[in-house]
Amino acid sequence: MKLNALDHVNIITDDLAGTTRFFVELFDLDVRNGPEPLPPEHVQWLYDDSGRAIFHINSKDMQQAYRRETRSGPTTGAIHHVALDCTDHKAFIARLEAHGIDYRLNDIPSISLKQLFFSEPNGVLLELNFRSE
């Protein structure tokens, strides 16, 4: 298993349009709808000039791939998870199981993506993305 890069930051918000506008204006990002079946009225993905999704902005009403309580506010509660771009999901599943770590696998065939969700010891939710595997 090799960690390739930080994939994106997912932010839950009470104000989808305002939060999206903030990041677009601050970082000059391109706004796109998330892939189907994600509804654009609840999800906006923000891309850099190289075509990489940097921020996923979700309304608080959006059902998450991995459900957990989040709250907008002055703490990090609005950050839902940290996503990492990885390779060899089967090897990583074996590693998680060998360490007794509970995880959830999410498969999105429409974009050839497999995701692993699990929490690290401090409660930070991690999403590992494996493309075309």
Question: What class do helices, strands and sheet pairing give?
Answer: alpha+beta
> Uncertain spans, ≥5 residues at pLDDT below 50?
none
Strand content: 35-45%
The total number of structural domains is 1
Number of helices: 2
Q: What's the order of the H and E elements?
A: EHEEEEHEEE
> If strands are numbered along the chain, what order do they take across the biggest sheet?
2-3-4-1-5-8-7-6
Shape: globular
CATH fold descriptor: 2,3-Dihydroxybiphenyl 1,2-Dioxygenase, domain 1
Calculate the terminal CA-CA distance, rounded to whole Å. Answer: 13 Å
Q: CATH homologous superfamily?
A: 2,3-Dihydroxybiphenyl 1,2-Dioxygenase, domain 1
Radius of gyration: 15 Å
Please state the average pLDDT score: 85
Give the biggest sheet: 8 strands, mixed
- The CATH architecture term is Roll
What is the C-level CATH assignment? Answer: Alpha Beta
The helical percent reads 10-25%
Number of strands: 8
Summarize the structure.
This protein is of the alpha+beta class.
Note the main attributes of this structure.
133 residues; alpha+beta; 2,3-Dihydroxybiphenyl 1,2-Dioxygenase, domain 1; eight-stranded mixed beta sheet; 2 helices; 8 strands; globular
Give a structural overview:
- With 133 residues, the chain is α+β, with helices and mostly antiparallel strands.
- An 8-stranded mixed beta sheet has the order 2-3-4-1-5-8-7-6, with helices on one face.
- The chain is globular.
- The longest helix has 12 residues.
- The protein has 2 helices and 8 strands.
- It has one domain: 2,3-Dihydroxybiphenyl 1,2-Dioxygenase, domain 1.
